Amino acid sequence: MSRKRMIAMLLAGGEGKRLGVLTKDLAKPAVHFGGKYRIIDFALSNCAHSGIDTVGVLTQYQPLVLNTYLGIGSPWGLDRRDGGMAILPPYMKSKGGMWYKGTANAIYQNMGFIDRFDPEYVLIISGDHIYKMDYDLMLAEHEARGADATIACVEVDWKEAGRFGIMHVNDDGQIVAFTEKPKTPTSNLASMGVYIFSWPVLQRYLIRDESNRLSGNDFGKDIIPAMLQDDVRLQAYRFGGYWKDVGTLESLWEANMDLLAGEPPLDLHDSRWRIYSVNPNRPAHYSAPGAEIAGSLVNEGCVVEGSVRRSVLFYGVQTGAGSHVEASVVMPNVKIGRDVQICRAIIGEGAVIADGVSIGSPHGGVTVIGSDEFVAADHALMEVKQP
Amino acid sequence: MNANVLGVINLIHESDELESLTASRCLATVPFGARYRLIDFALSSMVNSGITNVAVFAHTKYRSLMDHLGSGKDWDLHHRQSGLFVLPPVTGDISEVSRGDLFHFYQHRDYFTRSPFEYVVITRSHMVCNIDFGPAIAEHRASGADITVICKRQLEPPDGKARMVEIGKDGRITAIQDHYGRLRSDVVSMEMYVMRKDLLLELVDTSLAQGQDHLVRHAIMSRIGRLDIRAYLFDGYLGVINTLAGYYRNSMELLRPDVWRSLFFEPGPIYTKVKDEPPARYAEGAMTSNSLIANGCVIEGTVVNSILFRGVQIGKGAVVRNSIVMQNGLVGEGSVLERAILDKDVTIEPGRELRGAVQSPFLAVKRKVI
Fold this sequence. Notes:
The complex is a heterodimer of chains A (about 375) and B (about 375). Helix content of chain A is about 20%, strand content about 25%. By secondary structure, chain A is of the alpha/beta class. In chain A, the strands form seven sheets. Chain A has a seven-stranded mixed sheet with strand order 5-4-1-6-11-8-12, with helices on both faces. Chain B contains nine helices and 28 strands. Strand 16 (about 295-300) of chain A pairs antiparallel with strand 14 (about 280) of chain B.
């Protein structure tokens, strides 16, 4: 097997606790997004477009749907003879095995996989972000700067900064300080969780980290700070495009709504950077006489009889006559009866909403209905509380 | 499942009068139903019926056919236990291309002799339906017929051209006539035939030896008295699409929700070549009614009683009525389309008005700019 310049390791084990009922039986990267996609499609499509043909996908929680979805990687062009996609769950060894303790430990446990390809560089990404990024440009800068590690970063809202790894950089773009999820952020330059490491350097730190019993075995909390203490060259790569961590229900809903802007910050219709996905194969959607659809995304297989405004309908959704769906995300195969009112809600896959039900309100938080739930007219008792 | 059956989609001398829609492509790959090609219906029906080996006897203008079918992956026909075989004409002499289908069957007899299957199902691509061949094959076996012809009884004559069939009291077919025949019958042949493979090979050999080279006209119709030929009646939706009027009428039929549902979902889904198009996007101020809209469309104007294929864009203030716009069509701001069929990649510049009539819709050729 020929040597690979760069391979990707995709962290897809996220439990996604903050997505509540949506991740009850589903790993976070497999959550539906954007009318057609699953969150992980974005990272995988980025790999495909960046010329990366070898991707290890590290899975852990609720892997069934995710593994089935990924298959042999053909929708992303990752069904290759040399490399391609490999799903890497934790496993038992003769001296015992263990769950992935942290992001760094997950890579540590798969060093054997990486070494098979003897890569110069390893790209670490995660399966829970929405963005379009050419990793090859980032690699070019990594090489040009002679960096040992490069971390992609974006400026985020100050009030959100505490959710991310926050860094300070000098005029050369070199990272001088890094704090994971600070309580009082002193910068709003956040790590996107996209790292390029020169493999020998990373390997050294992974081995050292593993022998440290006090370590949390996490990139943001342990590996990066350890590298910063030494004279490892850590470079920041500023990303100018749209990037969203969809780890919370609110951010998941917002990222869906962002797609509906007049000029969406992330354009799904860009033919040069298609987001690949498993195509569910449904007929074109049908808009009935009397249907009203505006400011929305509607996927194939839908039957729309009511009105749909500023909403995202996944495949196979049916909405009955007299129903109004507004500012909502309706996941695959949801059946909405007649005269239903839905506003600012996320309706989980396969849910059934009975005639005359009203869900959500124009103000306040996002209402969420879990997958396969049946919401009857007296649904107040069944509505799911956000965690 | 019907693992003992070989499928053949016979595209040799398919009659077509679809004007410019078939100028550069064969009838089998005429786009239909917002995201499909005509051949998808026969192919998906076979696959859903458990037929895992399918040969497509290509004839002319088959570039788009090869492109569409690829490895057969989208129909699940690319496995060790299954296969799609696109078989173009084998001939040393260009004049032989115009010979009848039996000649081409003969040239590809290896396909039949090599396979262990006992039965064949032969179809064409222009009979658009969603059919389970299982019951037809079971009935063929149970009745002891030599040939079973799948037919549909319908009161109104089809929009396209089709052979009429007469069925006697014992269920045997007593007459088959071409579309211009005077046979008074309400039974239409769907050009789908079930028979034993060895009978087919025998018909090929004996007919060719007698200088006859058409499967239906010669091999079958001339043996009506001698062979036990029976009809199997299909009761689902059937669209006969080999004329432009038939194409337009049947496309508009898809806007009836019952037809949409039965043709696309029952008994199984219709597969087609996948495309990574995003969901259709409706702008503020968009309006649609009674329409089929595929993925990748961007709608800023009004679409009524129409069918939009993948990647179509309808500009602000544009009105599309009773029309069919194929892949990547672009209707500019303020333009009006009424009873029009736009082939792939047609651009209508802003402010144009194009109107056709019921019997003759306005037809724009591929890649035309108007």
